[in-house]
Design goal:
The chain is an alpha+beta fold. The chain is built from 17 helices and 21 strands.
Length: 486
């Protein structure tokens, strides 16, 4: 009894005066050493500051050591790995692992097609300590943390965690963005190939097809071998130039944030997948327009920037914004289409034909005009796959040429141009919806074509308004990229 009373008095005294050691704290009626590597605070270390020792950080209500002495199998809380790794560590499989800054010895390339290894070995990269390596090392480290099906924000954190170990500061902005994008494109491609996600392989491709898959078009001449392996097109160079999209962030985002969505849309073979993705994009991204009082134009992408007459000043600042608004032109649709295909290892190359964004598909030897995706929502996707002679007709036929080449596949102009509206997006609310409005003249559109139009976009439930002689649709909710990627 006496000893129990003394214990109680001692416990109360500790509560009043605190622990006698500066590195201790009462936890669950016990004095806990704060230098212990990892322990959980019942009431939350976030609310008991200071509670973690100087070499620790409060992560997910737990004190996590920032030193390199974590046990080999120590697992950090989900999503916190990049946040808590020390300067000489990278996040790998949600574990902090020591990062070697010493030059690699022997073959350190990912085990893929030897042509991919050759490409990676040809690109020199500077580490932050000033030593040099090649892209094999960088991509190997990227692969150690990469999962294409992860949440996009988590992928972004892991990519930046690895790339922060390399010094791109001596490059101009365009060169830096180009090499980052190229490294990410190759990483995603190897990951898809190694995991056998699709029934085609990198080894199936010719050198030109492989080059199209990995080629990243920069804004300016990029030094140091970053433009190696530029593909050769069957189209004479007098008809096209290199395509370049003006928003750098979208170019990098597109290299890894579309894998989940593209995988959902893929089919049992490449041809079906190419048309499946094209059809989905026709039904979800539409051309900007101004028609009388109806205005669904580029200025929704200003996002605080001053108004400008230049198209390049009104491009969306991120891939997420593009998916929120769904307003596009040929350049956005071309970049999005080629990126979706590349995300699941289908070669595609962006080119510019008379200033318009066009995608070349080397495995089919066909071209897709970005404006056709935006304008011809009711045209079956296979009719948008153009031959070389048809793309030449576009390049020599002026503005009317690139629409006429699709219309010529029918006995008459198939459908009047539609108008597209966006309900609620100007208010930035959570109920954003798309709706279609189609100028309709009954004696120009046979009933069988109307049926085809309705079947092409069943989610819109097209119906005829006799009073206004137009086709209207029901509102169709816009899903952000984060939802489409789940």
């Amino acid at each position: 009894m006496r000893s129990n009373l003394l214990s109680v008095l001692l416990f109360v005294s500790l509560l009043l005066i605190g622990c006698t050691q500066s590195n201790s704290k009462i936890e669950n009626n016990q004095t806990v050493n704060l230098n212990q590597e990892n322990f959980s605070i019942q009431t939350g270390c976030l609310y008991q500051n200071p509670v973690c020792s100087s070499n620790q950080q409060c992560i997910n209500n737990t004190c996590i050591s920032l030193s390199v002495s974590n046990p080999p199998n120590f697992t950090l809380p989900t999503d916190y790995c990049n946040y808590s790794c020390a300067g000489n560590e990278i996040c790998s499989d949600n574990r902090c692992v020591t990062y070697s800054t010493q030059p690699n010895q022997g073959n350190h390339c990912p085990e893929t097609d030897s042509r991919v290894d050759d490409l990676l070995q040809s690109i020199s990269i500077s580490r932050v300590d000033g030593t040099m390596t090649d892209a094999c090392e960088v991509v190997s480290y990227l692969l150690s943390t990469y999962n294409g099906f992860d949440d996009n924000s988590l992928k972004e954190q892991r990519i930046n965690s690895v790339l922060s170990k390399y010094d791109f500061s001596k490059l101009d902005d365009e060169s830096r963005l180009t090499i980052r994008q190229k490294l990410i494109v190759i990483t995603n491609s190897i990951w898809v190939d190694k995991n056998n996600l699709v029934p085609w392989s990198l080894k199936d491709y010719s050198q030109d097809q492989l080059d199209s898959l990995f080629y990243v078009a920069p804004g300016w001449d990029v030094p140091n071998g970053f433009l190696l392996n530029k593909p050769t097109l069957p189209l004479d160079g007098s008809y096209y130039t290199g395509e370049y999209y003006g928003t750098p962030q979208i170019r990098e985002d597109s290299a890894y944030k579309l894998t989940n969505l593209a995988y959902k849309l893929h089919k049992s073979n490449q041809t079906s997948t190419i048309t499946s993705i094209l059809s989905w994009q026709e039904q979800n991204f539409f051309h900007a327009y101004v028609d009388g009082d109806e205005n669904w134009s580029w200025d929704v992408y200003l996002d605080g920037r001053p108004s400008s007459q230049s198209w390049t000043d009104m491009t969306p600042l991120s891939l997420d914004r593009l998916f929120e608004e769904r307003i596009t032109g040929c350049h956005e649709n071309s970049l999005l289409y080629s990126s979706l295909l590349k995300s699941i290892n289908i070669p595609a190359e962006d080119i510019s034909v008379q200033g318009h964004g066009v995608v070349y598909l080397p495995t089919l030897d066909r071209y897709v005009h970005g404006d056709h995706i935006a304008d011809f929502v009711f045209v079956p996707s296979e009719k948008l796959l153009l031959r070389t002679d048809e793309i030449i007709k576009i390049s020599t036929g002026g503005p009317a040429g690139y629409d006429r080449v699709v219309a010529d596949q029918y006995e008459r102009q198939p459908y009047p141009r539609y108008l597209i509206g966006n309900q609620g997006a100007k208010h930035r609310n959570n109920n954003n919806s798309l709706f279609l409005k189609v100028d309709y003249v009954r004696d120009m559109i046979p009933s069988e074509q109307l049926t085809q139009m309705q079947s092409q976009v069943p989610q819109f439930n097209l119906h005829y308004d006799a009073r206004e002689d137009v086709l209207y649709s029901d509102p169709h909710a816009i899903q952000p990229l984060s939802e489409l990627s789940k």
